[in-house]
Amino acid sequence: MNVIKKILKLSLIIILILSISLGIIFRKKIQLTYTIFKDIISLKNNFSLNNEFELSPIDNADYKDIVYKDANNVKLKLDIYKPSKKMYKTSPVLLYVHGGSWVYGDKSIPRAINPILDIFRDNGFTIISTEYELMRSNENFQKQVCDVKDTIRWIYKNSSKYNLNSNQIGIIGMSSGAHLSLMSAYSPDNEFTDDLDLANYPSKVKYVIDFFGPTNLNLLKTSGLNWDLTNILNSIKDKNLVASEFNPIKYVNSNIPKTLIIHSKNDSLVPYESSLELYNKCIEEKASVKLVSLEQTSHDMSIIFTQDIKDLTKEVLKFIVNNSPLY
Q1: Which Pfam families does the record cross-reference, listed alphabetically (predicted)?
Q2: What is the three-state SS of 220-231?
Q3: What is the model's pTM?
């Protein structure tokens, strides 16, 4: 009888501890959800559909132009935006990879998406914006994927110095930057190595947010491409081989990072089918994936409609919360 009483007592203590712990966790989740929800509602209310998409860069990085690698005498840099509120002992990281058709662009964060990234910063995240070697006269997907993966490896290497949580790294890519992000996140640690000083560090991330990213390069609508990229693609001898080698779908399995795909059915440059193929492959392999289909938004988001904003913000909200360190 005493043994039974002890077991019952111990069970009650365990249940009490679990209940208190779960209560604290769920309270934090509710608080986090409420905070992000307020930020997103404010963002939606202040978003003007009549204004042009604001592409001018912000300039408030806490650490600017940090050289993360110097391979083949090409110095590549990143910027760090610290959390505006400290919520965790070590900060989760969101890595931003810019678009620009693999030919243009830089690590500057456009003002138009800064409010979205500020939501992360307000909730304890560090934002890191990186650059990669742009294509000039030749196709250079191999080097560009290496650059993004080396940025992730640099984060692991320098996590203590900048108070970063290397177990909580997410990556967000825009257009061609989304393609490089998917390739970097899905491919194994030992692939796409470039800098010998970084090669032994991991390149694993927790999740990927893919905005309008190409997957199957053969689907690109070449009539709408810029002059530089058109010339580069036309110079490739075996386009099918390159398209196959640099298609993130080839790396999809059940263990890839959680993926949020955002794509518009009205995209005139990167067909919606590109993301649909990725989504279907993820479902087939039982990978964690969510596809948010926008109806009218243009590829560069210069045209974006109210319903698309609602759909986008709702799903981004859920994805942020589900991938916060509270989970």
Answers
A1: BD-FAE (PF20434)
A2: CCHHHCCHHHHH
A3: 0.83
